[in-house]
Design a protein that fits this description.
The complex is a heterodimer of chains A (370) and B (550).
Chain A (H helix, E strand, L loop, with lengths): L1 H26 L2 H11 L6 H10 L6 H9 L6 E3 L6 E3 L24 E2 L4 E2 H36 L4 H15 L2 H12 L6 H8 L29 H31 L2 H8 L4 H13 L1 H24 L5 H10 L3 H29 L7
Chain B lengths: L3 H8 L5 H11 L5 H10 L4 H7 L18 E5 L14 H7 L7 E3 L5 E3 L2 E6 L5 E6 L13 H11 L9 H4 L16 E5 L2 E5 L7 H5 L16 H4 L6 E7 L3 E6 L13 E5 L5 H9 L5 E2 L6 H7 L3 E15 L9 H9 L3 H9 L3 E3 L22 H10 L6 E7 L2 H16 L3 E7 L1 H4 L8 E6 L5 H8 L14 H10 L5 H17 L3 E2 L2 E9 L3 E2 L15 E2 L2
Parallel strand pairs in B: 1-10, 1-11, 14-15
Antiparallel strand pairs in B: 2-3, 4-5, 5-7, 6-7, 8-9, 9-10, 12-16, 12-17, 12-18, 13-18, 19-20
Helix pairs in contact in B: 2-3, 12-14, 13-15, 18-19
The chains are: A mainly alpha (370), B alpha+beta (550).
């Protein structure tokens, strides 16, 4: 087991290295650097000004060396201004004496770098954003997993019944509807003052100044911004959570159903039945545990899927978490922020895989990791 | 009849010979009131004196309402990372830092200029020398007095064209020495503690408008070239409490600073919910903001529906669809003429901007500009357009029209594409998101650009169509045009300049430099009871004026 975890960690580091190099390579292509210079300098700079800006800000060296600087295996660049004699450099913070600055400042030294678009240390930014996304994901999982298992078990315990058919239809529909469709539909139906249910509720006086549902214009809020300052309420957080949860839910429910249906046809269930055990006890005591092995892996696989989901949902609902940050970093070619985002993504994917593999062994004694 | 000169002497109002000439022109009906105000106040005549020159009293609307003390206001706007004001490229940057660093002069909604850190200014007769008189009693929030040294240091900084992206250098015109790229020797003179004199080698009429624009924030003499959001030193009443780029910024009253006039709000929150107007609206419905930076297109009606107050201003802001003449076949004037013949601006105005503006005439001089000359109406003839295109041998050319992926920019370019298709042209549409669009905006072969309002017609022509200038997105180069523009830029008299302007406008139309469908009215919405939040022709928000009705 120890060797297995060690090997997995090695793979993880190698993957992170490859991925960050690809990201670094792509973000450092000249047109992207030009974009960076223009967002940082002035959107209307001329080509000569762009080159001079890039040179002044340490983007002039060979790409492989700069990747090394970011990793922390190559000393950070320094540059002396020919006119003022002022020394600037990668490792020299604003107002720091160049003599005190460390030679290396990269990932290995624990320095994630500087986000150009936010004018702040990457480590400052990404931490808070991850917490926000963590909260969103927690609630999405808290709704998605129990609901999906319930739907899956109910559908799978009597394969082909009317209940199975209707729940399956629902699961397929929900998993076939991507977030950018369901999110918009939810906003129109529930969070628009001119369309959907909110206008009707306002007419009835349930919403608005004296409404018993609150003095809002709309039933739910189409913007989750107010949830970020600690004020998570049912009304501002439901739509983003449900939008994410619904997409993953159908898929997990389908998996659970298949697994449950298979277990329900196995020999030991038939024996239990013949012995006169009640249907309720068969499902809860005998079938459920075995039926949950397959969905467990699927649930763990949902984490990486959710990462793509939050990109859309956070942008749609103006919630400034990890997904939103990724979009901002990509659209502004914020190199070091993007690199940090990719490391986080690799970590999330591989750690959840690791947990899923280990958990699988624990749940199913027949599987061994050697 | 009362003698105006005496009235002015009694009131202590100074005036200017050219301003008096404008006053005559106004009375003869050659200048409307707005043009009159723009031109006279640019010469240093105070708005009150300008009104007295034409025997009018300022309309009540022009007097700013006085809000109650205190309160918090939340403004929907983009929040960009701060930087050196000289390289500001968005009005939003100026709106945020305006609470900290102020301006010498401000441009008002009615087209006039008034002093902020300047008490008054005057120009000599041929507009080569400007005397700027500073407002006494203004202090920086670090305790230093605001003096002529500060102003001179800022002028030196503005003229430094070696700073990448310093757009103030272009606004300073001939004050920049082309050999050194720095301020001209003897151009900036400190007369005494509160007086600065600016000497131009040639007549310059755009200095005051240039000083009223958002990159011209006045910095402390020791902090030229630095980011005011970082050093925090300024004359304004506010200080930055927090900023998270792309998310929010908060200005609060600076408790340790005595501001030289009244400010009302305690706290202003700038809320960034991205570029999509749908998100702005969602944010307004969720009661996260109290006013918008701008409201566009279909959302104007939607915001009306929320019960918010609509504020409108007519401007010389516009959307220009231009062909870049470095790209074949757009170097052929017949191709460009064919495009203009095939397009009916009225249709583009209706489909692209919901009719919220007025038709333009492909020469980028607006009827509200003082020197605007009326030309014969444009012709719309799709059949002649196709014939001209075939004659140019470009009938098979695929017109690839690039625009932003959203809003009126996309709709207008779509409408243009549709009209060209109707006329028998081959058209392909390309849309690019806002985050990347502006990287190559000057070099797309055929694309649309939004241009903000400028106070004088010659200003925009100098910025965008003179041979070789940085923002010449059409790659237009015509020595005759440049020569006429040089001439027009030195003439103060509106009528005399208009004669040359007529020729310039004609050249722009004949050369089919741009397709310009309309002038935009700008809109903003705010909740009822918020004062001085009206839309401004240059999107300005001055946090010092904002407040709630008492």
């Amino acid at each position: 087991m120890g060797a297995f975890i060690l090997r997995r960690t090695g793979v993880m580091i190698l993957t992170a290295l490859c991925l960050t190099f690809v990201v670094f390579f792509l973000t450092n292509l000249f047109p992207n650097l030009e974009k960076l210079a223009k967002t940082q300098g002035n959107a209307r700079m001329s080509d000569a000004e762009v080159v001079s800006w890039l040179d002044r800000n340490g983007y002039g060296g060979p790409m492989i060396l700069r990747y090394g600087e970011w990793l922390g295996v190559v000393p950070g660049w320094t540059r002396e201004d020919p006119q003022t004699g002022e020394i600037t450099g990668r490792c020299i913070d604003f107002g720091m004496d160049p003599a005190d600055a460390p030679r290396f400042c990269g990932l290995l030294q624990g320095d994630l770098g500087y986000s150009t678009v936010s004018n702040d240390e990457v480590a400052h930014i990404i931490g808070g954003r991850l917490v926000l996304t963590g909260i969103l994901m927690f609630w999405a999982f808290a709704i998605m997993v129990p609901a999906a298992l319930l739907v899956g078990v109910l559908a799978g315990m009597r394969e082909g019944s009317r209940l199975d058919r209707s729940l399956s239809t629902f699961s397929i529909a929900s998993t076939a509807t991507p977030e950018y469709v369901s999110g918009v539909v939810f906003i129109v139906l529930l969070a628009s003052s001119t369309a959907g249910v909110s206008s009707t509720l306002s007419e009835w006086g349930w919403l608005g100044p004296d409404g018993w549902l609150g003095d809002r214009n709309t039933l739910f809020l189409g913007s989750a911004r107010s949830a970020m300052d600690g004020g998570i309420t049912f009304w501002n957080f439901t739509l983003p959570v449900v939008t994410i949860a619904l997409y993953g839910m159908g898929y997990i429910a389908r998996m659970t159903r298949a697994s449950m249906a298979e277990v329900m046809t196995s020999q030991y269930i038939r024996t239990a039945r013949l012995k006169g055990v009640s249907f309720r006890n068969i499902v809860l005591k005998h079938a459920l545990r075995n039926a949950l092995i397959a969905p467990f892996t699927v649930i763990m696989l949902q984490f990486p899927w959710l990462l793509t989901g939050v990109v859309i949902v956070e942008t749609l609902f103006s919630y400034n978490g990890f997904g939103w940050t990724l979009v901002q970093a990509a659209s502004n070619n914020d190199i070091e922020l993007l690199l940090a985002c990719s490391i986080v993504a690799v970590l999330v994917v591989l750690v959840t895989q690791l947990i899923s593999d280990i958990g699988y062994v624990l749940l199913n004694p027949r599987i061994r990791i050697s | 009849m009362k003698d105006f000169a005496n009235v002015q002497a009694e009131k202590g109002l100074t005036t200017h010979p050219v301003a008096e000439m404008y006053a005559r022109e106004h009375k003869e009906g050659k200048l409307d009131r707005r043009e009159f105000l723009v031109r006279t106040t640019a010469l240093g005549v105070s708005a009150a004196a300008a009104y007295s020159l034409i025997g009018a009293t300022p309309a009540a609307a022009q007097e700013r309402a006085v809000p109650a003390e205190g309160g918090t206001l939340r403004i929907q706007t983009r929040v960009y990372a701060g930087k050196d004001p000289r390289v500001y490229d968005w009005s939003e940057l100026g709106n945020l830092s305006r609470g900290i660093v102020e301006y010498l002069v401000e441009y008002n909604r009615d087209g006039s200029f008034s002093g902020v850190l300047l008490e008054s200014w005057e120009a000599n007769e041929d507009a080569t020398q400007y005397t700027l008189r500073l407002r006494p009693g203004v202090t920086w929030n670090n305790g230093d007095a605001f003096t002529a040294e500060d102003v001179a240091a800022n002028f030196v900084g503005w003229c430094d064209s070696t700073v990448e992206g310093n757009s103030m250098a272009a606004r300073m015109g001939a004050l920049v020495d082309p050999d050194t790229g720095q301020a001209r020797e003897g151009g900036i003179e400190v007369v005494d503690d509160l007086t600065v004199r600016i000497n131009f080698p040639s007549p310059e009429i755009a200095l005051i408008p240039g000083m009223a624009d958002y990159p011209s924030a006045v910095q402390h003499r020791d902090h030229i070239g630095e980011d005011p959001l970082e050093h925090g030193i300024g004359t304004g009443a506010y200080m930055l409490e927090s900023i998270e780029v792309g998310i929010s910024a908060v200005l609060v009253r600076n408790p340790d600073h005595t501001y030289w006039r009244d400010a009302y709000l305690d706290r202003i929150e700038f809320v960034d919910v991205g570029e999509d107007p749908a998100n702005w609206f969602a944010s307004a419905e969720a009661d996260e903001v109290d006013m918008t930076y701008q409201t566009t297109g279909d959302f104007i009606d939607l915001f009306d529906g929320l019960g918010w107050e609509r504020s409108e201003v007519t401007t010389a802001a516009t959307y220009v669809l231009r062909m870049n003449q470095n790209n074949a076949p757009y170097d052929d004037v017949r191709v460009r003429q064919a495009v203009n013949l095939a397009v009916d601006p009225a249709v583009l105005l209706e489909l692209g901007y919901s009719g919220l503006g007025t038709e333009a005439e492909n020469h980028h001089v607006c009827p509200i500009h003082p020197e605007y000359a009326e030309l014969p109406p444009l012709t719309f003839d799709p059949e002649a357009a196709l014939a001209l295109l075939q004659e140019a041998g470009a009938a098979d050319h695929v017109f690839e029209i690039t625009s932003l992926d959203d809003g009126f920019e996309r709709d207008t370019a779509d409408a243009l594409g549709a009209m060209l298709r109707d006329a028998g042209f081959n058209v392909e549409r390309v849309i690019i998101p806002g985050a990347t669009y502006w990287n190559d905006w000057t070099s797309y072969p055929f694309s649309g650009t939004t241009w903000n309002h400028r106070e004088l017609g010659v200003q925009i022509l100098n910025l965008a169509y003179r041979s070789g200038v940085a923002w010449n997105e059409a790659a237009y180069s015509n020595p005759d045009f440049d020569a006429l523009l040089d001439e027009a830029s030195g003439i103060q008299d509106a009528d005399a300049r208009r004669e040359i302007m007529a020729q310039i406008e004609q050249i722009m139309q004949d050369d089919a430099v741009i397709n310009q469908p309309y002038w935009r009215s700008l809109f903003r919405h705010h909740k009822a009871g918020i004062l001085n939040a009206e839309m401004h022709p240059k999107f300005e928000i001055n946090v010092h004026y904002l407040g709630y009705a008492a």
